[in-house]
Amino acid sequence: MRIIKVVDLSVVVGAGTQVYPGDPEPRLTPHSTVERDGFNLLSVEMGSQTGTHVDAPYHFDESTERIDEVPLERFVGRGVIVDATDLGPRGVITWAHVEPVADSIEPGCIVLLHTGWSRHYGTAAYFDNPYLDAGACRELLARGVRTFGIDAINIDETPDSEHPGIGFPVHHLIADAGGIICENLTGLTAIDFAQPQISLLPIALEAADGAPVRAVAIQFGE
């Protein structure tokens, strides 16, 4: 078996990286340079939820696993893509969106919610993201799904002054099940092959609520 194609599903982390309102802004500054020190070394300051990242259950439940305690198997698996690109601002991803691929959902797969909202990355519209319905989330969890991804800043509705929201029901449901959430994915349209293998392996930050990832989809062949 060989790798035929690798699709990058990650945003670049830098000074222009869009973060959740109130989260730390990333700062990347030269610490050492070839000219001065003979080598380049970067000082990196950012929040654990910066860029394309995964949430550990600990993000919403202090009694559960931190990111460095989660079994690595939970970050890799066969991807099942749910097409929710028909939704507008703050649209709800319901079971009707999942139904066309429901037969391919099984324990160990990674469900990727494709909203197309990554096209708004870097703009104010990015915070008006579509989000997963709690009922659809419960059904996916009942079918054994423990890893979810979305090409938006939040798998729940993102609150603001005009939309106070109702908390983070999907985050809580997934955390209660010991599951993983990946947010700020991008490039899902480039997964143009069947049976994509998804890798969301995070940095092993000690006792952290989450960590950045270099998310990829891999096509294997003979």
Automatic annotation (TrEMBL):
<dbReference type="Pfam" id="PF04199">
    <property type="entry name" value="Cyclase"/>
</dbReference>
<dbReference type="InterPro" id="IPR007325">
    <property type="entry name" value="KFase/CYL"/>
</dbReference>
<protein>
    <submittedName>
        <fullName>Cyclase</fullName>
    </submittedName>
</protein>
<dbReference type="GO" id="GO:0019441">
    <property type="term" value="P:L-tryptophan catabolic process to kynurenine"/>
</dbReference>
<dbReference type="GO" id="GO:0004061">
    <property type="term" value="F:arylformamidase activity"/>
</dbReference>
<dbReference type="InterPro" id="IPR037175">
    <property type="entry name" value="KFase_sf"/>
</dbReference>
